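Sequence design from tokenized structure. All designs in this work follow the same two-part layout: the structure record, then the generated sequence. An example of the structure record is given first.
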């Protein structure tokens, strides 16, 4: 058994990681991107600087930057120690150690924290969360969900997963979810039931291998296309 967490924690990743996790091609990106459960990732601020349109939504955005920073500090050591205790569950190639992992993640989260007040004012960070989103049908070209659905399979129900994917598919023309492993490193037991129920509703799905792997075996994302 791998890493276990008793709650969803704030843990942010960079634009470079998003590009690889979700197999994004920067010169062919769609016009409007939704990042569901974005947390303290630097994806929004880095993409905004490059002229892309990204909206991130997460209930954590109801808190101030200082409060989010405190929450990161409160959970940081728990996660790093958990990774250290389960080091064999990870691929130590680009990131060479749990200490470096902490440095990489903190660099991304510091970018987010610096941008958060402005992004909140500009409407790039919204406090709503899955499975109910305040957007119109097909308002976005692409909806992304990183390390939330399937990751927390033991915390979020099968019904929550299905409702969340359906809702993302309502507001975006394509949905991408990464990874399809739970936080302990196994393929989520909720993946196949979700696929089966979506296919019964006429959705098209693809599991695609990507050029990113930190959790061992965690190099696949789920793509979901709503019925035409």
């Amino acid at each position: 058994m791998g890493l276990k967490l008793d709650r969803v924690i704030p843990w942010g990743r960079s634009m470079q990681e998003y590009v690889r996790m979700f197999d994004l091609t920067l010169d062919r990106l769609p016009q409007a991107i939704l990042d569901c459960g974005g947390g303290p990732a630097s994806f929004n601020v880095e993409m905004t600087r490059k002229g892309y349109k990204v909206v991130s939504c997460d209930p954590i955005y109801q808190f101030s930057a200082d409060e989010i920073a405190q929450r990161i500090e409160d959970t940081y050591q728990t996660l790093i120690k958990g990774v250290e205790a389960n080091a064999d569950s990870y691929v130590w190639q680009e990131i060479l150690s749990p200490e470096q992992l902490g440095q990489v993640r903190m660099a991304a989260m510091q970018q987010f924290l610096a941008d958060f007040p402005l992004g909140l004012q500009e409407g790039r960070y919204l406090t709503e969360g899955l499975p109910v989103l305040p957007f119109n049908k097909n308002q976005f070209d692409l909806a992304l969900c990183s390390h939330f659905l399937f990751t927390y399979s033991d915390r979020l129900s099968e019904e929550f997963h299905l409702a969340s994917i359906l809702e993302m598919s309502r507001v975006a023309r394509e949905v991408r979810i990464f990874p399809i492993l739970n936080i302990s490193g196994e393929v989520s037991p909720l993946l196949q039931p979700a696929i089966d129920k979506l296919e019964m509703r006429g959705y098209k799905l693809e599991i695609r291998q990507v050029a990113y792997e930190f959790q061992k075996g965690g190099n696949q994302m789920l793509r979901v296309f709503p019925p035409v």
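The first strand starts at residue 32 and ends at 36. We note this feature because it recurs in several other targets discussed in the main text.
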